Amino acid sequence: TQLLEQSPQFLSIQEGENLTVYCNSSSVFSSLQWYRQEPGEGPVLLVTVVTGGEVKKLKRLTFQFGDARKDSSLHITAAQPGDTGLYLCAGTFNFGNEKLTFGTGTRLTIIP
Amino acid sequence: DTGVSQNPRHKITKRGQNVTFRCDPISEHNRLYWYRQTLGQGPEFLTYFQNEAQLEKSRLLSDRFSAERPKGSFSTLEIQRTEQGDSAMYLCASSHRRKTGGSREQYFGPGTRLTVT
């Protein structure tokens, strides 16, 4: 059974600060996705990474995939209240296996 | 472009009753997935379809749960003889047959929140 650990579980910071959240697994990902989820809604896809060492940017969000494809990080620059939400990483572990395994998430609160 | 839709958004039922949820995937998406999310946890995989074929089922999907996708378009998830432990958010996702950058990206609906009293 593959497990994804996300850290920290909770993070509360002031508007304008930078932050990084992490996703780690003991197994190699075949692909990894980051999602953001608002209360009472479904997860919204932010990015997909597939290649070890890959870096993707989405405005103030930077996603990095570890060289060994076992870990990933999400860095937010100059956080804004609209960034508040639950950030979930999810991965597939076998090529051809469609099942996503999710972490428990990082609940981020940006204080105005 | 309409996203994944799910109905109903909320369902309150008494223990022992049967409930059915519906998911309409993004058009042209041939793969459809069901997940369950309990409070404070990430979603957990239940089952998935490629067209009308159910290709994988999780051990979480007990005999009381059944999912169908009869025409390869919308899907239904039925829970028979509901229990309080079934209370959760039931999420549906869909993906295109073609991969994007090596992966089939899954797009989620808003979910159906089930409360069993």
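Chain A has a mean pLDDT of 93.
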